[in-house]
Specification:
Elements: H1 2-19, E1 21-28, E2 39-42, E3 45-49, E4 55-59, E5 65-70, E6 77-81, E7 88-92, E8 103-104, E9 111-112, E10 120-123, H2 125-129, E11 146-152, E12 155-160, E13 171-172, E14 174-178, E15 181-182, E16 189-190, E17 200-207, H3 211-214, E18 220-226, E19 233-243, E20 247-257, E21 261-272, E22 281-295, E23 298-312, H4 319-324, H5 331-336, E24 339-356, E25 359-375, E26 380-400, E27 403-425, E28 437-460, E29 465-482, E30 493-496, E31 500-512, E32 515-526, H6 530-533, E33 547-560, E34 565-577, E35 580-586, E36 589-594, E37 597-609, E38 611-613, E39 617-634, E40 636-637, E41 640-641, E42 653-663, E43 667-676, E44 692-706, E45 709-718, E46 726-729, E47 744-746, E48 751-761
Amino acid sequence: MEKKLLALLCLFFIGNLFSQENQFKLLKTNSTEVVAGASISNTSGIVDVSDENGIFSLEAEYLPGSFQISALGFETLEVHLRSSQSLQQIYLRPTSENLSEVVVRSTVIPKTLRKVPASVNLVTKTDFNRTDATNVLETFNNVPGMFVNQGALNTNKINIRGIGARSQYSTNRIQAYFDGIPLTTAEGELTLDDFDQESLDRIEVIKGPTSSIYGAGLGGSINLYSKQPTKEEARLTAKTQFGSFNTQKQVYQASNTNKNSSLFATFTNLTSDGYRDNGNYDRKSALVNGSLKTSKNGSLSYLANFTRLKAFIPSSLNEEDFRNNPEKAAFTWGQSQGYESYDKGMLGGSYIHSLFDNFSNTTSIFLSFRDAYEPRPFNILKEERVSAGARTKFNLNTQIFELPSEISFGAEYYNEWYETGTFQNLYEDSPGEGSVLGERISNNEQDRNYANFFAQVNLEFTKKWNLEAGFNINTTNYSLTDLYTQDDVDQTGEYGFDTVFSPRIGTSYEVDEGKNIYASISHGFSTPTVAETLTPEGQINTNLEPETGINYEAGFKGNWFQNKLYTEVSVFSIQIENLLVAQRVAEDQYVGINAGKTNHNGIEFLTTYRFLVGSDISIKPYVNGAINFFEFDEFVNNDEDFSGNKLPGVPKYTVNLGVDIKSDSGFEFFGNFRNVGEIPLDDANSGYTDQYSLLNFKAGYSFKVFQGLNLNLYGGVNNALDENYAASIVTNAVGFGGAAPRYYYPGNPRNYYGGLQLNYIF
């Protein structure tokens, strides 16, 4: 009997031994910080995932055995594990940040950044965190080759490699998309001020002509991507921020992600009294985006955005006021209390479907509108715009001449309906009341059709050498209906621009592991905007031609010292023809003309280095910049020859020096020093702005209040040196009635901000 009992006890013990789970705990190297969400796999696949305490379990039947442990932000570990009755600790080493291996989504055929034969820059969460988040455009000033003229929160213009610098008050000649939905209108105008970095995952900027991909984009393209789910969870976020000039920002976000769908909703409200008189600003924005897996081979993504803005305009100042009284508004804008206001929205969806293993399609449809009212001293402008369109793209993995190849082709079409009217502003007849609507001066309707047909092929000659070639065919036509019958001019008719063929070819070669050289030639174009075609009398100049240009570029992208150091260098030359010039004919009024050629030659560079201090502090110093040699090739305007002069509105150089410091304790620090060279004020180069330097700091601390609730406290200072500088200029300003020309938009003096953010994870 005793022998039977002993045998049963042995069987029970052995059975329990074979069925027991062995527990392991994942920790960050040389620290007590746990690593959650790591995947543990063997030859049969994933066998477990570490929990919020860094613990995973393995049944005894798997042990001893070899396993691979991987987690985002850590080096993959190959390890041999054995059974043990005690908790075993395993350490993972953090990886160095390596943006060069990020897959670029904004090219027609996705490819890692290092292998793209073009100058592409990423604006990431780290870049967003460096700023005060009042305007997403501020992050672009840290991209070499980009320069943002910021006259006020609502008065911004972006130029890339000097293209777009001659625009007076807005951004044009740059294509932009949000999750594949066009943001640039069919006439070429772009406003990015409506979007907040809190709703963005990242931004990809392709510099130089991108017409072979996106059509009218002589300066380049900017692609915004919304936040994407990283794991299945529900989250609520609330953020409030206060700063100088009574600037306030509130952000409310909610998200829910599961296996087959995700939903993100963001509401923001930004208000400010502004540094200058007549500078009040109020913007409310709501954005909803998400995705839904509809089948094994298909998924749907969607996006909706609405913005309501009312922003007063202090306008530009002459040099004396700029230096001695920068807080004042321009006299006429102050007297008329000029402002811009609009309701603006867009709605779009994209469906991605894998037709076969090597053949897929992405199709997007979109609808947008804008209803605007803008009282200016010289007149009151009313605009209504509705746009609708679609874009489809096919991707095929195949072989050409027995070489691994990828082919992409597709089309984009959208139609825009404008109604534009101007009215007299009777503010001088009613002192103190601001702008007063008077009689109509003009009324036009415009129906613009815009179509692109594009294709690209990538050939992989060897594992190190690849070639890509593509082209785009664009047609832009518009019909004009002149509804104003009180004058003798009737411009009603059908108009259009010549069909534009834009080819591109580029190649990349890996000279050593992680180091690539590239070269490319591309063609680009941009059509005139409605503002450029509009005369002071409210008529349309139908004789303007698109600007065209060719970009020649070569560069290097490479990693060094086990991917801790990353460097980029690019040299380029862009030749622009049919240059569109804003010719000033009255105070704050311009007429666009085709008047010459420009050469845009330059050098851009970028270096980042990342290293660890101890086990828990990451330090990333960086330096980037651009040296510009932009000048008129042939340019004669009003019998004056400006050939050989420097292009106005663009600094001679820009340099950024900075450091990002982060620790596992939750502390982070961002410091940035920016130096901007002189900027020519006009075509004659009769004056320049002073070079200036800006020093910005920001620090924050994040910690867990209790399980699921995290709090982030932060604060910063902008322009710590209290520099008096021109944040933007109006090129070719002319004084009327004996007044000095108003070139300058003063930058904000030293200013402070601080805030807190709560995140609750269910």
